[in-house]
Design brief:
The chain folds into 2 domains: 178 residues, Alpha-Beta Barrel (TIM Barrel); 65 residues, Orthogonal Bundle (DNA polymerase, domain 1), CATH 1.10.150. 42% of the residues lie in helices and 19% in strands. Strands 1, 2, 3, 4, 5, 6, 7, 8 and 9 form a 9-stranded mixed β-sheet that branches.
Amino acid sequence: MKLADLHLHTVYSDGSATPDEIVRAAKRNGLDAIAVTDHDTLDGLAETFAAGQAQGIEIIAGVEITSRVGTQEVHILGYFFHDDWRDPVFHKVLEHAKHLREQRALEFVARFHQLGIPLTLAEIKACSSCGTLGRMHVALALQRRGVVNSVEEAFERFLRRGKPGFVDRPRMTAAEAIGQIRRAGGVAALAHPGLNNVDKQIPEMMAQGMVGLEVWHSRHTPAQTEHYLAMTRALGLLPTGGTDAHDANPGLVRIPYEHVETLKSCLT
């Protein structure tokens, strides 16, 4: 049976592995298809496709767009099965999201200066080899500076919502993210719903054009997996799944390839 992992990150966002490392690990771990879904960027896809061709692994173009429902942050996965991911308007939308991430990084610098920690933007950028900045890179910069001993400590002491170093940032709405994915020719799915609190809003997101729900996820409990699988059946959503790996270890969550085929059928 063919298997797929539809949620993976590389150094082009907050992952630690290059696209080539991810693809080689996918081959080694017995996967037939993977989707690289970096946060708010498609910059790693060309490199991923080249690695996939070399290793004989099917690559599905993807992205994970940070958005919101009300004040609740949600992540919308977009999957593209043709060359639609190259759409220049969609790239401009994501470039704007990347710009907002850099603006947020500057606000982190200012916030930590207020806390007596002279963090610099250069230090944060040095922790992101490919340019897309997030809290993970701030955490790594704090660790390199010796302020904390680990990334986990950085989040616990400073970077989680409500902590002294947390900085919020503007996000497009989930409706806007779904609309941009659809306009570019992709399929939209809600990532890791068990980590958010938006179950009541899922029918509304469906009405906006979302067709998939990430049922299988490395941080979902068995009860959550059953809950969201039942929800897909009740609402007519397509179940998806992925590891959400941020290192070179894809395939901890693997789903039958038939789910990929069902997603593809949405575009025919």
